[in-house]
Amino acid sequence: MKILILFYGVFGVEYTLFEMEGERELARGIIEGIGTKTAINTYKYPDGETEHTVKEVSNPVSAIKWILHTLTSKTVIKNVEEIDAIGHRVIHGGTKYSRATIINNEVLNDVVDFSDLAPEHNPFNAQGIKASSQVFPSTPQVAVFDTAFYSTLKPEVYLYGLPYQFYTQYGIRKYGFHGIGHLCAAVEVSKLIHRSLKRMRIISLHIGRGSSITAIDKGEAVDTSMGFSPTGGLLMKTRCGDIDPLIVIYLAAKENLSLIGVENILNKNSGILGLAGTTSLKELAEKAEKGEKRAVCALNAFVYRIQKYFGGYYVSMGGVDAFVLTSRDDDSVPLIRSKIIKKLEFLGLKLDEKKNEKCCDKTMEISTRNSKVKIFFVPRNEELCIARETKEVVK
Hints:
By secondary structure, this protein is α/β, with parallel strands linked by helices. The chain folds into two domains: 2-145, ATPase, nucleotide binding domain (Nucleotidyltransferase, domain 5, 2-Layer Sandwich), CATH 3.30.420.40; 195-382, ATPase, nucleotide binding domain (Nucleotidyltransferase, domain 5, 2-Layer Sandwich). It has helices at 60-73, 105-113, 122-135, 155-158, 164-170, 179-193, 246-255, 259-268, 271-276, 281-289, 293-317, 334-342, 353-358, 382-394, and strands at residues 2-9, 12-19, 24-32, 36-44, 50-57, 83-90, 101-102, 141-145, 201-206, 212-217, 220-224, 322-327, 364-365, 374-379. The protein has an eight-stranded mixed beta sheet, with helices on both faces. The chain is globular.
């Protein structure tokens, strides 16, 4: 059974093809610059080598057709009939969707309706679904929601200190994001140590374009750093994370900004970029090691907020059995993992520095033998988890 995974966003469209027998990844790539004459298709071969192709891609349908052409021209598949199902990563499912589901008109309309809650993501997710349905008209399409994992949050966790009517009328509450990635990482650790998630308290840290941290107790999410939107929580690459809400009003007045102008600052020009002038965690770590003041400040701020959330989740769950760190490629920086765990040693976490330096492409324990809380590195692979859920829904 071959399953194609698509994530259509403001950046373009990511695609990954799996052969589910043996869960083999057959192809991976990303098309960026959709709507231009110089769109770039970066195709990654199984051996890690990449190939870049440039052409005009006017719309989402053209992008999906290019993906199909790429897969057939590389002889990964012979024709469209070889793809048995398509799984779509959808950022927001509101409180309606607590699991993956076959996409029909109602589901697609819901994805569009939830755009009010995720204007930076759901409109693009919907475009990808529509385009994919045109290119693969007879292939089952499945939506896997980032927010679904957090359907288990309790009211004391998801409610804000605002008038209750704003929750009932407008759905203002904590939703949480990166749920697919956090659950995927926890499952991989469970498999590695042959221990049921039902018997574990896990804190999972996701580092990427956005970063978040989630508390998982007995296999269910009990809290997470992101809130009503993916902007809340940790300091991120370009997002500010938690701030005093009155800063929004103050900035708008001082800079004579519209709400959209303030939103651009909070989401696109803040975080590590705003503090240190870079979005590369590797570059940030290198500059910090050289003693560059802004880099040191940004790195310390990034690490401190993670440690603060970890401490809160440790208390709320009454302890932790495993700390799981998940990232991909350039976001996997040993120095950052080391700095995060250093101040957590008094809680029983001890990092094996040699293992920490080596981990990059497989799930592995990176704690010492006498660490009371086990520490694991898991390469990010939400696509595989989406493929698994897609397979189950289709079956």
